[in-house]
Amino acid sequence: xxxxxxxxxxxxxxxxxxxxxxxxxxxxxxxxxxxxxxxxxxxxxxxxxxxxxxxxxxxxxxxxxxxxxxxxxxxxxxxxxxxxxxxxxxxxxxxxxxxxxxxxxxxxxxxxxxxxxxxxxxxxxxxxxxxxxxxx
Length: 136
Prior knowledge:
The chain is mainly alpha-helical and 136 residues long. The protein has one domain. It has helices spanning 2-8, 15-19, 21-41, 63-74, 78-107, 112-135. The radius of gyration is 17 Å and the shape is elongated. The mean pLDDT is 84.
């Protein structure tokens, strides 16, 4: 949000900054996944109710809270889907950070109009591919 506000105040907006909006979100997503995974490994328990888990239960992989209700419940994936999703958590996190870092490098090295397009396209393309891959 800060990038969007700061980037749109000037009369001549900094295109490279505005190209980073989605990449920054992907970076935050990857970090959040890794933090929850690290907490899970050291035995941290749920601090509050998250999705189907109540306060005090052992943490599940963080991807669960994102996809559990939609894919496992509404999509009829059930327990089998949850079991297959667990290993995907760390993979999603690591690849999200790689995509965010690569997009950032691209945004600051190519011509600014190209940077703007790629800054928005690459993260969404990655999300689409990974969502389709995870759903299989």
